Amino acid sequence: MSASSQDKKSKTASVIESAALAKPTSLWQDAWARLFKNKAAVAGLITFASIAIFCLVGPFFTGYTERKGELALSNSAPLADIMKEVRIEGNRERIEYKSIDGFVRSSRLKPSVDGELIAQQVRENGEYQSGNSTYTLTDRSHLFGTDNQGRDLLTRIMTGGRISLMVGFLATSVSLLIGVFYGATAGYIGGRLDATMMRIVDILYALPFTIFVILLMVVFGRHIWLLFIAIGAVEWLTMARIVRGQVVAIKRQEYVEASIALGQKSPKIIRKHVIPNVLGVVIVYSTLTVPSVIMLESFLSFLGLGIQPPAASWGTLIKEGAESMEVYPWQLLFPAAFFSITLLSLNFLGDGLRDALDPKNSPR
Amino acid sequence: MLRFILSRVLQAIPVLFIIVTLTFFMVRLAPGGPFDQERAMSAASKEAINRQYGLDKPLLSQYTAYLSDLLKGDMGPSLSSPGRQVNEIIFSKLPNSIQLGLFSLAFALIVGIPAGMLASLKQNSWLDYIPMTGAMVGICLPTFVIGPILSTVFGPWLGWLPVIGWSGGIEFKVLPTATLGLAYAAYVARLTRGGMLEILGQDFIRTAWAKGASTFSVVFKHALRGGLIPVVSFLGPALAGLISGSFVVETIFVIPGLGQEFVNSALNRDYFLVLGTVLFYAALIIVMNILVDIAVVWLNPRSKFE
């Protein structure tokens, strides 16, 4: 595949260069134009940007924190009515927040309290008094409900998203750094060094890496920095191969030979031809690496080997939700939806970028 | 051909050696030991038990002892379940895991290949867009998301299928297979579509159309062989993915398989069992990759064994 697409690439590149005389548009302007014509990619970009902003900014506005919950409000359904109970015990007042549905359910076990009546009265009048307790309807609400410790699920999804996205981007950067440096060195120097370096990559490819990441996490404790390093160390291999292939291919292009023949200096060739061509694939592959890293992190967290409580990522939220899916389905469905939609949008964006940066698809 | 296979097998030996060495020193240098849980144990009896398993010797001589046992086909005793051998544990748990893997792979191919072929034949129509969007969604629903949803909906809610266990009738196999196979069906569909599109655009296919061959004959006699090459090359990485996916699926559906054994043995610092399972998985992946390489060359007449 690579040979034919590079043929086409070189052809198109020369077409672009000759067309540049008439109307100067750069490779990047072309790519942007193509990207914005791709509806799925634009939708992916917008969706992903909104989710990222939502997770970064959102926790400041929900009014709840991700670590502190109210046990009396545990497992309350999305948008459930919440009332305040003020109970007078001797000369002390006790204040507790309760979800009305949860209150009715637990009152069925206590014959002395008529939960149904209290719930009905509070819903109708906003207030009700029974025995020592006064119940008031509040305007407190949890859009996505709460988890088993009464923590606001919306806030937890946002802060969990921060961690998942941070792992995604940092681990991708680790793999990017190693992969680009390794691949570019092998490809640029070539010869025996190239052969040896790529043979090492081949051998590493044959290792069952997920198994090693699991071993690393189990064996050396589950520290978040170890997670970045472990995932980054797995993902750099493909990046190195892609970058090396691209550098080798560019070195052989006629237009590079032509610019050498014209007496162009190495730094200018690298700046003009090598970097723009490598940058494209690096961007595309990074966009596609981020979702696979987020997936790997969540996979580890699901097995209990990733992010450790009280911190939470989408993976840990999915794990917690899966344990109570039968009774409290929202605890799984909301985090799972955010997780899957994020992956989906990043994949659409990555596919769109790949098509956009591929000169095969040039309009001319 | 024979030379090719031989050279690949010979290359696998140093890789396996690296894996054994890496795993051995990684688990041994880790903090914690296999008998930490048993707090009541006195220092003397701990020493005795270490001596019994040869864990009191210098690390390097333990390593050489392990290698020489390994060459005789003995993977050592299990430290967390006394009296049992690693060989015995692996082979008792293996059948369930192998079945799960094969069923899921078959599911992925049976669903994925026809969907991808259809999409490539009707490119840019709704028969292309719908399966391909579905495939993208499927890729973004990994086992740990789709598993709990399927097991709750078809288990407790609808009451159609059992959600715990594996051995038993076909009804026990449906949900784990679908959970593990779904993402791979999606990948296979995308790869089939891509491979078929590449082949369908080539000259020999145009010739086949021109000489009046039927759609059936063009697709199945001419295009499919080349169009499936990406799918076949994917089978190597797919196996590695199925193995790690099986850790999740075996946990969700409580299937007694090798995946659970691996995760638990690593947590319990059961040195020999960790080594045994890692080595076994690695060998499986390497063998699969060699088979895939052979199949790719066989499918593509233009490439040669080197």
Helix-strand layout with pairing:
The complex is a heterodimer of chains A (364) and B (306).
Chain A: H1 2-22, H2 27-37, H3 39-57, E1 82-89, E2 92-99, H4 100-107, H5 115-125, E3 127-130, E4 133-137, H6 153-189, H7 191-205, H8 209-219, H9 224-252, H10 254-261, H11 266-302, H12 314-323, H13 330-357
Antiparallel strand pairs in A: 1-2, 1-4, 3-4
Helix pairs in contact in A: 2-13, 3-6, 3-13, 4-5, 6-7, 6-9, 6-11, 6-12, 6-13, 8-9, 9-11, 11-12, 11-13, 12-13
Chain B: H1 2-29, H2 43-52, H3 59-71, H4 86-121, H5 126-139, H6 143-157, H7 171-200, H8 203-210, H9 215-227, H10 229-252, H11 258-267, H12 271-299
Descriptive account of the structure:
The complex is a heterodimer of chains A (364) and B (306). Chain A is an alpha+beta fold and 364 residues long. Helix content of chain A is 67%, strand content 7%. In chain A, strands 2-1-4-3 form a four-stranded antiparallel β-sheet. The mean pLDDT of chain A is 79. Chain B has 306 residues and is mainly α. Chain B is 75% helix and 0% strand. Chain B contains twelve helices and no strands. The longest helix of chain B is centred in the middle third of the chain and has 36 residues. The radius of gyration of chain B is 24 Å and the shape is flat. The chains are: A alpha+beta (364), B mainly alpha (306). Chains A and B meet through helix 8, helix 11, helix 12 and helix 13 of A and helix 1, helix 5, helix 6, helix 10 and helix 11 of B.
Strand content of chain B: under 5%
> Could you give the order of the helices and strands of chain A?
HHHEEHHEEHHHHHHHH
The major β-sheet of chain A equals: 4 strands, antiparallel
What is the structural class of chain A? Answer: alpha+beta
User: What would the average pLDDT of chain A be, to the nearest integer?
Assistant: 79
Mean pLDDT of chain B: 83
Helix percent band of chain A: 55-70%
